[in-house]
Amino acid sequence: MTGVMTFHSRAGRAVATLVAAVSLACLLSACDTPPSADRLKADITATLESATPTGLIKPASVEILDASLLRGTVQFATTLELQRDHAFGSWDQMGIAALAKALGAAPWEIEGIKSRGNATGDRIRVTSRAQYSHARTDGDWTLDRFGPPPAPQGTHIRGLREDVWQVTTALIAAPKTWQIIRDNFVWAFSRSHTQLTRARGGYAVVSGTIGSDAWSIVEALRNAATPQRPVVNLIAKDEAAMTRLIRDGDATAAIIDSDRAPALVQAMPELRGVAALFPKQLHIVVSQDSGFASIVDLRGKRIVAANGPSHAGEDALRAYRISAGTAKLDTMTLTAGLEALAKGEVDAVLVTARAPDTQVADFVRSGAGRLLGLDGDAIALLTTAENSYLAINIPARTYPSQLNPITTVAVSALLMAPATTPDHEVTGLLAEVFGSIDYLKAGSVAGMFIARDTAMRGLTMPLHPGATAFFETPVLDR
Questions:
Q1: What's the first-to-final CA gap in the chain, in angstroms?
Q2: Are the C-beta atoms of 281 and 394 separated by less than 8 Å?
Q3: Residue ranges with strand state E in 263-405
């Protein structure tokens, strides 16, 4: 037994010695030198050429901030120079999210984006990370990817209702009776808080689930608010919760997708339009090698509508005379839908989301999928007066290997308010929404799309008098 242990001990020491020798050889070679700034600049240039419109932007300089030789991670800052005018907040041009995705940066790591558009020669600073590995042939560094972006920081994470929910969940056990007490306590506490906030001259806005685009906009407002004009971010986990908050008179306003607005207006005729905030495009994702050239090819196929309750996918299928009678339709989360598509269990996934959607981008980048567009007849049918859809393009280079624009339709994320909300409260809220907030720095990419020029896109219901007064007031150039 002792001999066996001695053998293993010697073998272990031999392996350790070999590993140490290899590590030493690595350190004495190129391994002890991080990728140069010139190499990093070349990789950034190649990435931008494939991920942004041709000739739009190029790196002017690159600075290596830190490098971990063990992990092959390089933290850097690059200054990018615009080669022509570009509005990153335009609904019809490549947005800042595509640039952030290409370089693996978080929104607040990008500086120099102007809400009214950038001009030729403007410089944009991006801080991010690059992951490198050693090539086995020549030992040189090879770029694996940019990113990932850091996780959102403290103030970007939660809203009031979640804080209260966590406390009460910790204090109260789970029997049904106590669940009812907990639910009503949370609701009563939230109502009291929102009513006090509004009484102090503040605003309470119903957004959506934590991490959603609507939530990020209201979080940006909340974090930028002054003590004199506080903002409460009301989390509505579903449409029923949103309806209750509006109907009970708790909220100043709510963010609602335009294709859901007609049903809510029918249930609550007192709802009024306030402003359109950002677009959510219809994406039709199919397998890369499927051979499908048009939605018409999906007749008789297995189709998933992901992340409801948007009607856009269902209505687009109807424009091609595809229904439950001519295809196998199912609903599931986007994650589950893309997994099923990758396995060949379904033929298409339809989702309405602000482009670029992270999950769709990753799926397309992997080579597993591509996007289909809508033809002119279908778009014309979907954008008639009685419908709430907008004709829109997913700009070229929004997704990996997407060389041309994709014609589709979109819904607008609308700010809406009950007619009972005082005019001055709506006007004040709009002054904050369209004010000087740096949405990008606050972590809201969706907020970059907020502009007066697009504030009426997708609004088909009567406008709130407070909104009318706000948009009819001339704006002085700053």
A1: 85
A2: yes
A3: 271-287, 302-306, 328-332, 348-353, 369-372, 390-394
pLDDT number for residue 346: 96
Distance between CA atoms of 49 and 57, rounded to whole angstroms?
8
Stated as kind and residue range, the H or E segment containing 246 is: helix 239-247
Exposure string over 76-103, b if 16+ CB within 10 A, otherwise e: bebebebeeebbbbbbebbbbbbbbbbb
Give SS3 for 82: strand
Number of neighbouring beta carbons within 10 Å of residue 454: 20
Distance, CA of 95 to CA of 120 (rounded, Å): 16
Provide the CA 177 distance to its chain's centre, in angstroms. Answer: 38
Based on its alpha-carbon atoms, the radius of gyration of the chain, rounded to whole angstroms, reads: 26
Question: What pLDDT score was predicted for residue 190?
Answer: 63
Determine the pLDDT at residue 158. 42
- What per-residue string of b and e applies to 142-178 under the rule 16 or more CB within 10 Å gives b? bbeebbebeeeeeebebbbbeebbeebeeeeeeeeee
Burial 395-408 (b: 16+ CB within 10 A, else e): bbbbbbebeebbbb
Burial 252-288 (b: 16+ CB within 10 A, else e): bbbbbbbbbbeebbeeeeebbbbbbbbbbbbbbbbbe
Distance of CA 340 to the CA centre of its chain: 22
- Contact (CB, 8 A) for 276 and 413: yes
Contact 207, 255 (CB under 8 A): yes
Amino acid symbol at 57: I
> Cis link prior to 309 (omega < 30° from 0)?
yes
| pLDDT at residue 34, as a whole number | 79
Least Cα distance to 189 among 211, 163, 215 occurs for 163
Which pLDDT score, from 0 to 100, does residue 59 have?
95
CA dihedral 19, 23, 24, 27 (to 10 degrees): 180
What span, in angstroms and rounded, lies between the C-alpha atoms of 76 and 178? 52
Beta strands in 299-424 (DSSP E): 302-306, 328-332, 348-353, 369-372, 390-394, 406-418
Q: Could you report the per-residue pLDDT of 248-283, keeping only the tens digit for each?
A: 888 899 999 998 888 888 888 899 999 999 999 999
CA-based nearest residue to 356, from 341, 371, 335: 371
Residue ranges of the chain with per-residue pLDDT less than 50: 1-2, 4-8, 15, 18-30, 154-160, 162, 165-173, 180-181, 185, 478
What's the pLDDT at 139?
Answer: 63
